[in-house]
Request: fold
Amino acid sequence: IRLENVSKMYGTDTLAVRDASFDIAKGEFVFLAALGLGEDDTVLDVGTGSGVLAISAVCRGARSAHGTDINPASLGIVALNVGFNGVDGRVTVGMEPLDQLVGPYSIVVANILAVVLRELAPDLVARVAPGGRLVLAGALGHQAAGLVAAVHPL
Reply:
């Protein structure tokens, strides 16, 4: 996967941390591979940023992925990265609120701060198709139990 302008998605105070943690994102790619994505899977990437998870999902076999983000810069950056990776038409991006998205999705991923994940929990759960999966990242170890409680029962 080729990504450009990734650092533009993060504030300058977190830029070094985000750039230094890019190898951790490769660990997420391995996790996406472990999901066994197939041609029937549709993926929602909440807080898509550069589109890395959405692009990775379709490169690993998902039929399509839609990324959503509150940062307007994400729209152009995801479009650029989609083109670099030849997944035009399979990855889309927008800024719509979760409750306005047409779903459900077989897999919903969100890699954002735990406080935001808890706030979005009802809308995240509502977007998961029956038998689907919700994959959350961004919580610290001590935040995990509260996050699990917020999405239970899924």
